[in-house]
Structures are given as C-alpha cells and as structure tokens.
C-alpha cells in the first residue's frame, strides 16, 4: 500500500538519539493527521479504499474524539464531513470488510460527536457532519444503506454492524424527541428489517437490540405526529414475533433476577442445603466453614442492591408498549398461560402476503413456556429494592403494565382459573416477609403478592404516590373482576388487610410531612379506603369462605385507632373527601352521591364489633383476645345480623388507563432513563 499522504508517511516515528525505534500503527498515523487538521487523502486516489481495509482501532479513535474540544472539532469540520460521507459510500461497496470497517468507524465517530455538549444538538450535529444544505441528501442515503444491509447484508456481522449503527444514531441524544436525525428513520422506516432480525434464528443474538430499537423509534414524538413504527407495532399479529419478544423478556428477567440472588440468597431451601453442606464439610475440614457467607455474597449488600438492575432491564419498556398498544399481544400472553396445562397447541391462522410475512410464517417457534412468570419474578425483586430514581422508572413500567393487564377480562379469567397453577419465585430479601407461597397457584395470587410487597417495602416520608396509586389500582381492578364474575379466590387475604392498614397508619403518623403533596396523598388514601369498602360490601362474592370475612372484619376492628385518626383528619381538614381533585386517577371512590362518607361503614364495623368483643372479654374475664378466639367463639359471625351498613354503588368502577391522559409526561422522563441504560447494555 502506498503512503496515504502527500508528504509520504513512513509509519515510523524518529526517536531521540539512543532510543529504540517505535512503529506507529497505520490507522493511528492517518487519524492523527486527520485530527491535526490535515487531509491525508489529497493526491491519493486509493486512500479511502485502502483506509477502510484497515482494522478500526476503536480505542484510539474514541480517545481522539474524547480529548478534542468542541471548538477544535468545528475547526476540522471539513475532515469530519469528508470522513462521514466516504464512510457512507463505503457501506455500498461490494467488499464486506470495507462495509464493516466503515460502519464501525461511523459508530465510533458519531458516539464521540454525540457525547459533546451542544447548545442545539440537532443543528450543530448536522452542521458538523453534512452542513445544513446537504443534510436532506446525505442522511437519507445513510438510512437507505442501513436498511438494506440490515435486511440483505451478506453476513451476520454486516447485519449486526448496520443495526448497531442505527442504534447509535437513534439514541444519539438521550432525549430522542430532540434528535431530529430520527426524522429520517420516520420518513424511510426500517420496521420490516427489524422484524426479520427479531424472528430469524440466524440473528437471535441480535433480537434484544432489534426489539429495543423498534420500540424506541415507536416512542419518537408519538403523541405529536404520526409515527409509522407505532402504527405497525399496533398491527403486529404474528405469534412468532410475540413469542420472540417474550423469550427475550424472559431471558433478560432471569439474568437480572440472578444478580439479586447472587447478592443475597433468599430461597430457604437453598439456604438449608448450603448450611448442611457447610456443616458437613466443616466437620471434616474445620477450616472450611470459617468465613463462608451463607446469606450474602458481597461485603455491602445494600450498596450492591442499589446498583441493580443491570442496564439490560430496559427491555421492560418494549414489554409495556406492546401490552399497552397491541391487544393481540395481550391475547397471546393470555393464551400462553392458558395452554401451559393444555397438551395441544393451536396452529397459526395467519395468511401472509408479503415477503416479510412469508419469512415470519416459515420461522419455527421455540418453547411455549410461561415467560410471563419470569417477568413477575423479577418484578418482585425490583419493586422491593426500589431505592433510586432509576429504579422508580422501572417500577413505573412494571406497575403500569400490570394495571393494563388487570383491566383485560380474558387475561383475568385465565390467571384466576384454579386449573392453571404456577410456582413463581418471589423476593424474600427484606422484612416483612409474606407467606412463602412456593406451591403452584393461580397467577392472580402471585400478582397480589407482588403488589403487597411493593406497598410494604416502599413506605418512606417522600412517598412515591404515583407508584402507590398504580399499585392500589391493580388491587382494585383485580377485586372488581373477582366481584363482577363471582370468583372465590383462595388467598392469604389477611396479608392484604395488614398491608393496606399499615399504609393508612403510615400516612396518618406522617401526615404533617404530606401537606405540600396533599392531592396525591389524598388519592392514595382514597384508593386504599375504597378497596376496603369494596371488600366490606362485596367480599361475599370473592372470599373463599366465611372465615375470611370474619378475619377481615376483625382486622378492621383491630385497626380502630388508625381509623379514628383518619376520622379526625376528615373532620378537621377535609383531607380525604372524595370530591378533592387529584392529578391522576386510577380509581374513583364512586358512590350514589358525592356526600357518601368513605369511612362510614368502617366506623360502623369498628364501633359495633368493638362493643361485642369488649362484652365477651368482660363476661369471660379475659384481659386480651386473639384472632383465634374471635373465630372460635364466633363473636364476629354471630353478630352480623345487628350490623347496619350503607351499600354504596359503583365501588368496583374505575377510570380505564390512558397513557396520554394520565402518564404522558411521566413516560417521557422514563424514556430518557431507558435510552441511557440501553446505551450501556451488555447484551450483544
């Protein structure tokens, strides 16, 4: 190869007298000249052809771009523009290695440029790369080349590098809505290319990135203008696509969950096994047991937990968007749960007409397992270790996804069926611990446990009221379905009452801290009380037996002091009047009139049964009384006849979820966290 510069680089740096000669890598030599403002291509007709045959030294090029200032970058604008344009041209050549090297060069170059702090991101980036006048000519060529190579690249490496380049561009600004380069992907969408990567067995290692890129593009200005990715995402109907998404979600959740377990093993059976092995080996080798950690694999578990989950958890955005936008996807999840215990599997009814559809149709699908359970398992760990703004973003996605699913009648029907039972591992790393329900059970019980776990482990003075409203909204929707369809659910209901009353007690004891957040805390209080009211008036439709009702009423009586405190707030400040405005409603405590006192029935129960219990204690000379005694002596069950309650209507009604109406601004913030994490991903 000839020297690439006019002055004739030798590839040798002349050392000081007596020092050893040091060879300089050709790639380094060329880019050193570039960044000094020289143009080594002048007078070298084969320069670019030969440059893209050189192995890209990404480390050196990244270093150059990191160290150069924005002013100096603008000073060598012509060199940057030429390198950008020539790289695009090389992507269209026949030589495979030139294509790959050109795309890798573009990835590093663009990442370096995007990392600079521009006052006007899109304007300055476009001005640097192409100039404003040439942007509409050059960038469509780049998107065309990416689109073609993703779909028709001659090797997997070419396809993967094209996908990677698209990701770098689309995620160039963490706020994707302020990256006008994405407009070129809107005008010439790469949807079909991404779908083929997702479903093809040959590119299965690229499915995670393809799913994420598709979903991020579907979120670009989706409420401001027509987005072709969102439109097509809504219309996806092929089960093989759904299964691939669930497969990627499942594997990601399993990996993320394992990182929590590596910090602290919370499976009692595993702890017992480890303890037994340690004891046995220790009896033979006394030194073995010393220093062995059975409960934690790290020196500072709390610090380790704060760093989790890994960046790959960004896939939760794609799952949320599919659940929120594609009813067929929800139906697929429902069917996959239903057919878990059914030997035969229904065949596809699709009638593909395009080339892409034919490729989709011909792709074999993998196992049909309960991928949804892996999502639920990871959710319990994340929700119990929700300590940062970052984890709060993912908690939002998890809870919103469950809110949407809990509004779907078919989904609810399947997860409540006693014939379809699943053993799902839930987090037990923080007290208080729920009952260790490792036995198979309907998924509805798992979901309730996850939500209760969130309520119990996130009680802080800076209460995440938006998350609590979602969590309570899930419970309310679930009970509303059970009530409407008269589904009697075997469940440890006492855990729910302890959780709800504990939440009310916490808010009551910290009421002075919530005055500035009155509206949102008001919503949380109303939601929790509404669930209790719904259970009081309609519990006979979903409690499995009379004892559950007795126990529920007794828990209300035990919390008499808490409800008296809430009464004082109502009478003194109107803190929880139903008509108080709220900023985002998941459930409204509907009643025959807005004058219905939401604590009326609770007060009646407390007063009525408190007197009966005190009378029993007096007659039996008992100073205290236990829940077991209440059941044995039927104090609750024998005194229902004289209990007079109000029967308000519409307690099971709720406002259906709407992203635009309730959570548009919130999800835009979440999206920024997702994009930032996606750029840090470790899945390739």
From TrEMBL:
Subcellular location: Membrane
Armadillo-like helical domain: residues covered: 435-682
Keyword vocabulary terms for this entry: Membrane, Transmembrane, Transmembrane helix
Chief location bin: membrane
Claim: DNA damage is one of the keywords in the record: no
SMART domains found in the cross-reference section: DUF1741
Listed GO CC annotations: cytosol; membrane
Any one Pfam family match given in the protein's UniProt record, by short name: ARMH3_C
PANTHER family: ARMADILLO-LIKE HELICAL DOMAIN-CONTAINING PROTEIN 3
Full protein name: Armadillo-like helical domain-containing protein
Naturally occurring in which organism (per UniProt): Rhizophagus clarus
């Amino acid at each position: 190869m000839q020297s690439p510069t006019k002055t004739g680089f030798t590839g040798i740096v002349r050392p000081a007298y007596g020092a050893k000669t040091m060879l300089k890598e050709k790639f380094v030599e060329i880019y050193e000249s570039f960044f000094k403002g020289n143009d080594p291509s002048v007078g070298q007709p084969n320069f670019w052809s030969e440059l893209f045959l050189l192995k890209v030294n990404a480390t050196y090029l990244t270093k150059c771009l990191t160290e150069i200032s924005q002013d100096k970058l603008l000073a060598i604008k012509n060199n940057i523009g030429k390198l950008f344009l020539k790289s695009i041209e090389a992507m269209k050549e026949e030589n495979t290695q030139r294509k790959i090297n050109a795309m890798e060069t573009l990835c590093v170059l663009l990442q370096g440029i995007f990392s600079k702090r521009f006052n006007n991101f899109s304007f300055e980036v476009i001005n640097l790369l192409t100039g404003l006048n040439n942007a509409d000519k050059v960038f469509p060529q780049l998107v065309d080349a990416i689109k073609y190579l993703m779909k028709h690249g001659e090797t997997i490496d070419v396809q993967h590098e094209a996908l990677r380049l698209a990701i770098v561009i689309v995620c160039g600004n963490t706020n994707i809505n302020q990256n006008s380069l994405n407009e070129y992907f809107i005008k010439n969408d790469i949807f079909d290319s991404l779908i083929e990567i997702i479903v093809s067995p040959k590119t299965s290692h690229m499915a995670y990135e393809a799913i994420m890129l598709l979903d991020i593009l579907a979120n670009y200005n989706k409420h401001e203008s027509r987005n072709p990715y969102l439109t097509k995402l809504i219309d996806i109907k092929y089960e093989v696509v759904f299964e691939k998404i669930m497969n990627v979600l499942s594997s990601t959740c399993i990996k993320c969950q394992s990182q929590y377990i590596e910090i602290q093993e919370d499976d009692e059976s595993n702890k017992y096994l480890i303890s037994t092995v340690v004891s046995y080996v220790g009896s033979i080798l006394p030194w073995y047991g010393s220093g062995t950690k059975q409960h934690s694999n790290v020196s500072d578990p709390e610090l380790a937990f704060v760093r989790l989950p890994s960046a790959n958890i960004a896939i939760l955005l794609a799952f949320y968007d599919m659940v929120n936008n594609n009813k067929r996807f929800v139906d697929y999840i429902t069917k996959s749960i239903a057919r878990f215990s059914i030997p035969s599997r229904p065949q596809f009814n699709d009638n593909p007409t395009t080339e892409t559809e034919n490729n989709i149709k011909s792709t074999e699908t993998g196992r049909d397992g309960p991928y949804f359970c892996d999502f639920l398992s990871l959710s319990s760990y994340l929700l119990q270790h929700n300590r940062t703004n970052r984890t709060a973003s993912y908690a939002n996605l998890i809870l919103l996804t469950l809110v949407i699913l809990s509004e779907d009648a078919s989904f609810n029907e399947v997860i409540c069926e006693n014939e379809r039972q699943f053993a799902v591992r839930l987090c037990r790393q923080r007290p208080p611990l729920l009952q260790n329900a490792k036995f198979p059970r309907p998924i509805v019980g798992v979901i309730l446990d996850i939500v209760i776990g969130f309520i119990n482990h996130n009680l802080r003075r800076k209460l995440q009221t938006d998350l609590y409203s979602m969590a309570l909204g899930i419970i309310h929707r679930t009970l509303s379905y059970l009530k409407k369809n008269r589904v009697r659910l075997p469940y440890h209901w006492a855990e729910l009452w302890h959780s709800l009353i504990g939440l009310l007690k916490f808010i009551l004891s910290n009421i002075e801290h919530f005055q500035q957040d009155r509206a949102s805390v008001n919503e949380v209080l109303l939601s929790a009380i509404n669930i209790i009211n719904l259970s009081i008036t309609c519990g006979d439709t979903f409690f499995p037996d009379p004892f559950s009702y007795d126990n529920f009423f007794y828990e209300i009586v035990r919390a008499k002091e808490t409800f008296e405190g809430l009464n004082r707030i109502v009478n003194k400040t109107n803190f929880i009047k139903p008509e108080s405005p709220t900023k985002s409603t998941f459930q409204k405590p509907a009643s025959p009139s807005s004058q219905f006192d939401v604590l009326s029935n609770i007060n009646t129960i407390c007063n009525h049964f408190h007197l009966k219990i005190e009378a029993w204690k007096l007659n039996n000379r008992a100073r205290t009384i236990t829940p077991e005694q209440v059941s044995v002596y039927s104090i609750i069950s024998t005194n229902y006849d004289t209990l007079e309650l109000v029967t308000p209507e519409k307690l099971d009604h709720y406002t259906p979820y709407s992203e635009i109406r309730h959570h548009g601004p919130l999800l835009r913030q979440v999206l920024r966290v997702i994009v930032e994490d996606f750029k840090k991903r470790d899945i390739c």
